[in-house]
Write a structure and sequence with these properties.
It is globular and about 60 Å long. The protein is built from ten helices and 15 strands. A hairpin with a 4-residue loop joins strand 4 and strand 5. It has a six-stranded mixed β-sheet, with helices on both faces. The chain has a single domain, classed as Aminopeptidase (3-Layer(aba) Sandwich), CATH 3.40.630. Helix 3 packs antiparallel against helix 7, helix 5 crosses helix 6 and helix 6 runs antiparallel to helix 7. It is about 30% helix and about 25% strand. The protein has about 375 residues and is an alpha+beta fold.
């Protein structure tokens, strides 16, 4: 695990010499401690939301049984926000870990840590498209607008969640026709899913981008869900009540900032997706609305499941063709049991700054926040 924390996202002076620079940096990392990285180049960016170009084909997916109710909830959380990224990095990574011993322990901020030995990760992706789709091309139009990494500690029986800003600038692999890595370049992490045919290859590319952002931690499993499920999920629980954090009267006169409303399906979609035209158009504030909605939706899901034993089957059947995962039905059932049994420690985010570059929002997490997050989620103090 300590080797994982050494890995960094090397920045190039420009996108033109990115490949050559990456090769040089890779050689330097193997030979010695990496030097302070230069400022990253202007990164490739793309806006959130919008219509999906081209005709999308449907994906057939099996509905999960009632034991997978928590997975259904996670899928709900993903699609909700999926509908739903100037300062640059002070440096791409610090000289972290500060010290590594033969037992894989590290010293961070004067404290000795050792790797957690029984960690499992599960990445939930929400895609900015209405339908699940794959294409014959090695590119697609489905961006990962919502990213949440669940970290299960199988020893302590605890689960933590990290929500990753879709505008985060990090190294993303460019894939060739066969799905092989052709090159790597810094861009919004949401774009990682647009490489590949929109199925498992695209999901794994996004998982790899999240891994690169977090200094190379392993992403074990993933599930992606499209935004088309949001109205369905919202209405299945009878609507979701929230106090509006932003004013949407330019779209819907009934959605005035500060008012408490029970959102219908399409209103819920607008609330967690739209940021253009709002007073604060950053993804950071949209993430606040997403988390607010997720908490309220989860409470309604719990109530619905308590009163209707068939509710989970109804939910998963309704959105089953909008899910892509590397897990089988049985494996998802085991993950669902963990969501039920483990203590949930809450949702955290990386700290950083947002800036508009070339007309697009970009988010730059601080290296210290990345390092501290990795320590908190994947290490423990040495006895």
């Amino acid at each position: 695990m300590a080797d994982v924390l050494k890995k960094g996202n090397s920045s190039a002076k420009s996108l033109k010499d990115k490949r050559a620079k990456a090769a040089v940096e890779k050689a330097k990392i193997k030979a010695a401690k990496p030097p302070k990285a230069p400022k990253p180049p202007k990164a490739k960016s793309a806006g959130a939301g919008g219509s999906v170009a081209g005709k999308l084909g449907g994906i057939a997916a099996q509905a999960l049984n009632s034991k997978t109710v928590i997975i259904a909830v996670c899928a709900a959380l993903a699609v909700i926000a999926s509908v739903v990224g100037v300062v640059v990095w002070e440096q791409t990574h610090t000289d972290f870990p500060e010290h590594e011993a033969s037992d894989n322990s590290i010293v961070h901020n004067g404290v000795v840590y050792v790797p957690e030995q029984n960690i499992e990760t599960f990445l939930v992706m929400g895609l900015d498209t209405v339908e699940g789709a794959t294409t014959d091309s090695y590119n697609n139009d489905q961006r990962a607008d919502f990213l949440m990494l669940f970290v299960f500690n199988n020893d302590t029986k605890q689960c933590s969640a990290l929500q990753v800003n879709r505008d985060t600038i990090t190294n993303v692999n460019i894939l060739g026709v066969a799905g092989d890595v052709v090159s790597s370049t810094p861009m919004q992490i949401a774009l990682s899913h647009t490489y590949g045919h929109g199925g498992d290859i695209s999901c794994r590319n996004t998982a790899n981008a999240v891994s690169a952002l977090l200094n190379g931690v392993k992403i074990d499993h993933y599930i992606s869900v499209t935004m088309g499920a949001v109205p369905t999920l919202n209405d299945l629980v009878g609507g979701v009540e929230v106090s509006l954090l932003e004013d949407y009267t330019h779209i819907d006169p009934s959605m005035r900032k500060g008012e408490t409303v029970t959102l219908t399906g399409e209103q819920a979609l607008r609330y967690v997706q739209i940021r253009q035209g709002l007073e604060d158009q950053t993804n950071t504030t949209r993430m606040e609305r997403q988390q607010q909605y997720i908490n309220a939706l989860y409470a309604k899901f719990q109530a619905s499941m308590s009163s209707d034993s068939n509710f989970a089957v109804e939910v998963t059947t309704a959105i089953s063709d909008q899910i892509v995962s590397d897990r089988s039905i049985t494996q998802l059932q085991k993950l669902a049991e963990k969501f039920n049994e483990y203590a949930f420690l809450g949702i955290r985010e990386l700290e950083g700054s947002s800036a508009v570059q070339n007309g697009f929002m970009e988010f730059y997490p601080t290296s210290e926040s990345i390092s501290q997050t990795v320590v908190d989620l994947f290490y423990k103090p040495k006895d």
